[in-house]
Amino acid sequence: YELHKQFEPYWSPNGREILYWSGGKIFVADDDRGTLHALAGGAAETVGQHPAWAADGSAVFDDIIRATGNTDIYIAHSDGHSLRRVFADHVSEGGPVWSPDGKRIAFIRYGTRPSLVVTDLAGHTRTLTTLKTRTRQALPQSIWGADPLPSPPAWSPDGTTIAVATRTGVKLVNVRSRTVRPWHRPPAEGVPVVVDW
Questions:
Q1: Which CA distances in Å does 146 have to 114, 135, 142?
Q2: Phi, psi angles (nearest 5°) of residue 127
Q3: Can you tell me whether residue 143 is helix, strand or coil?
Q4: Alpha-carbon span 40 to 75, nearest angstrom
Q5: What is the pTM of this model?
Q6: Which is it for the CA torsion 82, 27, 40, 159, positive or negative?
Q7: CA–CA separation, 56 and 12 (whole Å)
Q8: How confident is the model over 51-88, as pLDDT tens digits?
Q9: 195: exposed, middle or buried (C-beta count within 10 Å: 0-12, 13-18, 19+)?
Q10: Which residues contact 61 (CB under 8 A, 6 or more apart)?
């Protein structure tokens, strides 16, 4: 691994391990034991740059990019065992985020019509909404690009709502009802959010 290319460090909930991305791989460093091991990634695949712990610290996720360029959603225990795919299809997915209770994962399914998707570890998957965008690219652009695709999702602390930033503003999606409403910036904040559905 290359020390000058380590990004996105995250402490485990128990404070003993650090999860980070380096050179297309996900590493877990154990502070108590002084050990370091690769969790995912390698010659035939790379891993997305946003690893995260499950709420109970038992597993982490990866969005693994195969040689074909397609990304799928995976989880693994922090010891490197039980790496398994929890969602895959012919369209790229990314930005997976654990729910506060650690039972579900929300992510963006990219394509010509990006969508917000939630799945559990048993494979029960729901598309919550399609997210409007003005780009035709299949993969996400940089947030600094002229027309970025939706951001990774963010769960509310109570797990009832997911926020996603799109080119037209922040959308709040109710997980149970799938209703979508725009987040409106408070007037004191300055420029209002323009909503374009």
A1: 17, 10, 9
A2: -85, 120
A3: coil
A4: 10
A5: 0.77
A6: positive
A7: 9
A8: 788 888 888 887 888 777 788 888 888 887 778 888 88
A9: middle
A10: 51, 52, 54, 73, 74, 75, 76, 86, 96, 98, 105
